[in-house]
Design goal:
The protein has 293 residues and is of the alpha/beta class. 43% of the residues lie in helices and 13% in strands. The protein is globular. The structure holds NADP nicotinamide-adenine-dinucleotide phosphate.
């Protein structure tokens, strides 16, 4: 019988109750992973777990609930994970959204920045010890080709002035690429790789919250040239299991191939500045828990 490449690998996927995250969870389950799926909706979480178990016959799957736009929930999630598992092999920072209106989280942060960027920044740092305890860990961060048009608005990171959904999305996805490259350097002496992936334009429910022209344009794009979330998940799974890619770190993948990201995303001074400033946006109560060694 064929050996399952993710057999007994502990894998955590954020935003796993729909879209690309859910499809990725199916693929990982088929390949034998022990899965921890994160979402904010308990009913969707339970249904996702039972659908996957039914289809794949892999029962090593659990759902952990957390609204990942709220820092206290991210901290609590990391604590729950660490209380139960002694290491983490694969972390897929998939959660993300597009919001054409400016929404503030419970922490008073702009939602796109908090969910698409600060969540992966905080969660990854909180789980670094668990990742370091794996024999070989991989982190994969979902970005977008939209990062190419992004700028880090240091004078107004929360985009309180002239908010525009696309600007917020582009900024968050550029921030993820900068964070990934910076983290890859920090982890150079550890058996942990960290990469970004643009999965393509994918037919999912992203961008459904409002119905302005930005959403309509994106929906049109998704419906005309979009690939299925199944296909996107295949690319993610390949990056998670490929032996050939096991030592590649700090790279930007488009679907399954390494591509050159934007010039700005390779600016090391910008990346350092963003990392340091990001710490200012973490609630003081939680900074103590971050392992930045
Ligand atoms: N779709 C594309 O064309 C595309 C292109 C490039 C990059 N991406 C990136 O790919 C990633 C996944 O996108 P997708 O298209 O699969 O999106 P999606 O279909 O909207 O799925 C997003 C997932 O994240 C969950 N989620 C949203 N807000 C959350 C929160 N506050 N706390 C916890 N979970 C939350 C959703 O939960 P619910 O089920 O409760 O909504 C859902 O499970 C994102 O980072 C996105 O930026 C997507």
């Amino acid at each position: 019988m064929e050996e399952k490449p993710l057999k007994d690998k502990i894998c955590l996927i954020t935003g796993a109750t729909d879209g690309i995250g859910k499809s990725t969870a199916f693929h990982f389950a088929e390949k034998g992973a022990i899965l921890i799926l994160i979402g904010r909706n308990l009913d969707k979480g339970k249904k996702t777990v039972s659908d996957i178990i039914q289809r794949t016959k892999n029962s090593k799957i659990e759902y952990m609930q957390a609204d990942l736009s709220i820092q206290a929930n991210i901290i609590d999630l990391a604590d729950r994970f660490k209380g139960k598992y002694n290491h983490l092999d694969i972390l897929i920072n998939n959660v993300g959204g597009f919001f054409s209106e400016r929404i503030e989280t419970e922490d008073g942060l702009e939602l796109t920045f908090a969910l698409n960027y600060l969540c992966p920044f905080l969660l990854t740092n909180l789980l670094l010890k668990s990742l370091k305890s794996s024999q070989h860990a991989r982190i994969l961060n979902l970005t977008s080709s939209a990062h190419r048009y992004g700028k880090i608005h240091f004078d107004d990171l929360q985009l309180t002035q002239n908010f525009f959904g696309l600007r917020a999305y582009q900024q968050s996805k550029l921030a993820i690429v900068l964070f990934t490259k910076y983290l890859a350097k920090k982890l150079i002496n550890y058996p942990i790789t960290v990469n970004t992936i643009h999965p393509g334009i994918v037919k999912t429910n992203i961008c459904q919250q409002h119905n302005g022209f930005q959403e309509k344009a994106f929906k049109f794009l998704k419906n005309t040239i979009g690939i299925s979330s199944e296909k996107a998940a295949k690319h993610i799974t390949k990056l998670a299991v490929s032996e050939k890619l096991s030592s590649i770190s700090g790279e930007y993948f488009v679907k399954g191939k390494i591509r050159n990201p934007s010039k700005r995303s390779k600016d090391e001074i910008l990346a350092k500045k963003l990392w340091e400033i990001s710490l200012n946006w973490i609630d003081l109560r939680f900074k103590i828990s971050i392992d930045l060694s």
